[in-house]
Amino acid sequence: MIYLLLSILASTIIFVLFKLFDRHQVNTLQAIVFNYITAFSIGVIAYEDPINVHAIISTEWFYGAIFLGFLFIAIFNVMAITSQRVGLSVASVATKMSVIIPVVFGIYVYKESAGLFKIIGIVAALLAVYLSSMKSGTRIKNKAYYIYPIIIFFGSGIIDTSIKYIETTYLPDNGIPIFSATIFGFAALIGLGTILIKKLQGKFKFNPKSLIGGLALGIVNYASIYYILKALDHETLESSTIFTVNNVAIILLTSLLGLFLFKEKLSTKNWIGISLAVISILLVTAL
After folding, report:
1. Which Pfam family is an annotated match for this chain, by its short name (predicted)?
2. Burial 168-193 (b: 16+ CB within 10 A, else e)
3. Which residues have a Cβ under 8 Å from the Cβ of 110 and sit 6 or more positions away?
4. What b/e string do you get for 104-138 counting C-beta neighbours within 10 Å, with b at 16 or more?
5. What is the pLDDT, as a whole number, of residue 178?
6. What pLDDT is stored for residue 146 in this prediction?
7. What is the pLDDT of residues 9-21, one digit of tens each?
8. For position 139, what pLDDT does the model report?
9. What's the pLDDT tens digit per position in 244-260?
């Protein structure tokens, strides 16, 4: 359970950092690229065995790591577009509601438990995500923009499901650091390619603050992936429980931090969602 708590804490700090980026005018794209470079470096340092590139390429999880690296940065870009054109709350709801995909996968493929309390807890979790994230007046004005939250929903769900599948099927006991590093490494390469294109187009201007922001973000980003993988590796915790508790707890903590640190206003609907988040965690973990 400690690994799950650490993953939740790291993911919540990511939220705080993004809020600080906006406040201190940090270039988000540059910070994201530096974040992936930092996370890649940490994974390489944390790997206890000698680095053998040929052996890594020959692993069964290598192409899965490439796929995840592409998804990581692609879904982030779609989230940015969604936040700008539709609203941050819509992007947040689409991301967290995607928990239903790995939950159903775990119950169906791995035959995980699906008792009455757990089912009620999962439904309560989805309601909690919606109610605590949505802000008053949020609606999609252009019907063409519906595609963005749909992409986020399926993309985020596929990421979580793929991480669970690779961890269960292909990853050795000591493989979490290098697997995580490989994912972040390919995401960094794609990000650097994007910056290079902007540079060639004359649209790139280095933001020194993004280097510091990316360093901080990379540390907690690596921790969030590392500890969720460690939690999934736990013999007594089911993935459907882990993903539900992880997503709902992040929503709960970020909502409370938004209230106390950033003086965000919470509506009655948001408070109902926060209450449901607590109830859903109690129900899902009451196995």
Report:
1. EamA
2. eeebeeebbbbbbbbbbbbbbbbbee
3. 168, 238, 239
4. ebbbeeeebeeeeebeebbebbbbbbbbbbbbeee
5. 93
6. 80
7. 998 898 888 888 8
8. 64
9. 999 899 888 888 888 88
Task: Report CA Rg, the chain.
Answer: 19
End-to-end CA distance of the chain, in Å?
14
DSSP string, 20-51: HHHHTT--HHHHHHHHHHHHHHHHHHH--SPP
Q: Give the pair of three-digit tokens for residue 90.
A: 């819509």
pTM of the model: 0.88
Residues 253/130, Cβ–Cβ less than 8 Å: no
CA–CA separation, 167 and 179 (whole Å) = 9
Q: What six digits make up the tokens of 21?
A: 């980026």
Interval 122-151 mean pLDDT: 80
Total Cβ atoms within 10 A of residue 140 = 15
What is the arithmetic mean of pLDDT over 160-175? 90
pLDDT average, residue stretch 218-224: 94
Q: What is the pLDDT of residues 26-77, one digit of tens each?
A: 888 898 899 999 999 999 999 888 889 999 999 999 999 999 999 998 887 7
